[in-house]
Amino acid sequence: TREIKLAVVAGDGIGPEVVAEGLKVLDAALAGTDVSVSTTAFDLGADRWHRTGETLTDADLEAIREHDAILLGAIGHPSVPSGVLERGLLLKLRFALDHYVNLRPSRLYPGVPTPLAAPGDVDFVVVREGTEGPYVGNGGAIRVGTPAEVANEVSVNTAYGVERVVRDAFARAHARPRKKLTLVHKHNVLVHAGHLWRRTVEAVGTEYPEVAVDYAHVDAATIYLVTDPARFDVIVTDNLFGDILTDLAAAITGGIGLAASGNINPEGTTPSMFEPVHGSAPDIAGQGKADPTATVLSVSLLLEHLGLDAPARAIADAVAADIAERDGTPRSTTTVGDALVARVSG
Amino acid sequence: TREIKLAVVAGDGIGPEVVAEGLKVLDAALAGTDVSVSTTAFDLGADRWHRTGETLTDADLEAIREHDAILLGAIGHPSVPSGVLERGLLLKLRFALDHYVNLRPSRLYPGVPTPLAAPGDVDFVVVREGTEGPYVGNGGAIRVGTPAEVANEVSVNTAYGVERVVRDAFARAHARPRKKLTLVHKHNVLVHAGHLWRRTVEAVGTEYPEVAVDYAHVDAATIYLVTDPARFDVIVTDNLFGDILTDLAAAITGGIGLAASGNINPEGTTPSMFEPVHGSAPDIAGQGKADPTATVLSVSLLLEHLGLDAPARAIADAVAADIAERDGTPRSTTTVGDALVARVSG
Ligand SMILES: CC(C)[C@H](C(=O)O)[C@@H](O)C(=O)O
Ligand SMILES: CC(C)[C@H](C(=O)O)[C@@H](O)C(=O)O
């Protein structure tokens, strides 16, 4: 029997509610297999910060490293100054654990309400770079609060960092039936970073002659996402553009209540982290209203990452079947979780 | 009689075609008034660069400065390396002429096809900062083309630059019936720039107690633009976020064929520049297929900026009436222009 050691960061707001359902479905999917899961709960997020002033200590990080994967609910609360938990906890995990592939699939399940009148057959995945770009925290400000203030943000892009994520994206595109890769950037304005991305895609592309490559500026990509999202298969893009595009992608495929993500270290030298794309939604926290589906789908990505394809697929199929039967009646967080458990077990 | 000296940069691709119609409608709107227009054509864009290697010389810029306003078609051609004309001509004009307000109205005219199933009543304006942010060209790269390459892009934000555009946005919000201003940024990640924007909006907001202020992260803003665009009234945001949001805004309100913009220096110390949001579309250039409506609406913004409200409104009304009678039958560039001339004159 194989034991999976799972670090659980339930986090803030609706995080604990959706994570509870995710874990229920995980257990159900592994029942009857020779895989068992042991979980360690990590007390991280707004409460811990208020109590101790800590976001993520070295000891927390070392303990998390001892695990095979991380399931994260949501981080962030209005009572904490903007940026403290995002930079000090969520992004710190992504950076410290070298999660350079931020994987965000978008699929429009049949029957799901979408704001688009004629979405077409939407099934693409965004490979968002996770350890560089404007997210590196290399900005700074001088004369803060005076009329002479200057605040800079620096986007750092390296051949090392771009090449590895582009390679991952090509491999994923190659493994998909349509074999299409779209680079999204803004190389007519951000010429240095943009040209590095472009040259890298061209170079790695020579190793994948079967993969068709195209390019869209980030502004044009948002247009395509609402006028012709079916054109996309795999999108590779930088950290900030990926952040923006994947929220929009979620919106057109049923909302962030359904959008899953994996923060992946493909070499497996560190635990990868799986989390819903949505935030902590403090306005509905504790009311049992949150849709746990995005977390459950993130559990499916987690299992796939660990090579457990059968239970991963069982969960994805259960979600698809559940979604197909939705009629718009609101269901509680646990009702959805129970329904998914029943399908996975049935 | 008042004479308006107009610099005309028709540019590349479909630029000359749509500008020709814009000028026709401009003449029609001013016929019978005591305002006359004299135009100076500037040979700028891909052809000039191929011939001379020049994008925008000091002499060009000085000559343009002698004008009251600029009408620009589109800049960019695949035969020119990415970034050369964008940075060397279009952005150089915006920066050199201190066009710090990049004004982009989005209105869903009745009858216009939109990709959204239930768009609601969409009528907002994006005030995009035009002279700072990641557009400043302060990036650079080392060891280009080697595995050790590092390419940085720097977003520069100053209290001086942010305050003046925020003031402009508040004034615009205050003058509109709904009096609502939304700041869009990403202050949980881009903490230095984001907090400067936030503090500035808070500070200027105290002078506008009637204006309701809210905030959205840029990723969330893209969600709202497809799920509830009617929530927006005035959006103020940085140069890059504004670029992205306004293409998406155009897409949901009938496409970039209808989206107008003004690059404005509110003090009037330099000529402001009016241009369609769309690009040069080289694939359809010379075929008389381009919709000149975005350029015509940009002419309306130009007249409004020059204080000529009646002809500005006549053009906007003509466009609204023309759009209301569209039935999807393709019309040539000149057909649309002629129809708008007829309405403006009639
Ligand atoms: C909370 C925030 C830091 C985060 C990001 O910007 O990456 C979120 O928007 C996401 O997409 O996971
Ligand atoms: C062509 C490009 C430099 C420009 C920009 O990014 O500002 C365009 O996309 C726009 O929105 O006017």
UniProtKB/TrEMBL annotation, chains A, B:
Organism the protein comes from: Georgenia subflava
Gene Ontology CC: one annotated term: cytoplasm
Keywords: Amino-acid biosynthesis, Branched-chain amino acid biosynthesis, Cytoplasm, Leucine biosynthesis, Magnesium, Manganese, Metal-binding, NAD, Oxidoreductase
Superkingdom of origin: Bacteria
Site keyed Important for catalysis: positions: Y135, K186
Protein name (database record): 3-isopropylmalate dehydrogenase
The encoding gene: leuB
Function as written in the Swiss-Prot or TrEMBL entry: Catalyzes the oxidation of 3-carboxy-2-hydroxy-4-methylpentanoate (3-isopropylmalate) to 3-carboxy-4-methyl-2-oxopentanoate. The product decarboxylates to 4-methyl-2 oxopentanoate.
Statement: the UniProt record of this protein carries the keyword Isomerase: no
Taxonomic placement: Bacteria, Bacillati, Actinomycetota, Actinomycetes, Micrococcales
